[in-house]
Specification:
By secondary structure, this protein is of the alpha+beta class. Helices cover 16% and strands 42% of the residues. The longest helix is centred in the middle third of the chain and has 10 residues, at 49-58. It is elongated.
């Protein structure tokens, strides 16, 4: 098993959550980041939201990988990333 789910307090955009976990006496550290992307800043003319979202993720900093896509609103979409170890 390489995934567990834990409740984190609300994290605003551009903030980090550092998580430490001890497994069989070995401590592991993880860093998560939530980003909020505004559709009107990213969407190209006549581009659908799925294509916009795909482009956002593909062009994101490669030191971070996608963890979760949050519920989108008419104005924005929150996305959570995990730092690649």
């Amino acid at each position: 098993m390489d995934n567990i789910t834990i409740q984190l307090p609300a994290i605003r955009a551009h903030q980090y959550a550092n998580v430490s976990v001890t497994v069989n006496g070995e401590q592991k550290h993880y860093q998560f980041r939530v980003e909020i992307f505004k559709w009107n800043e990213w969407r190209r003319q006549s581009e659908d939201r799925a294509s916009t979202l795909r482009r956002i993720i593909q062009n994101y900093d490669k030191q971070w990988r996608l963890v979760e896509i949050g519920g989108a609103s008419e104005e924005y979409i929150p996305i959570t990333f995990k730092r690649v170890s």
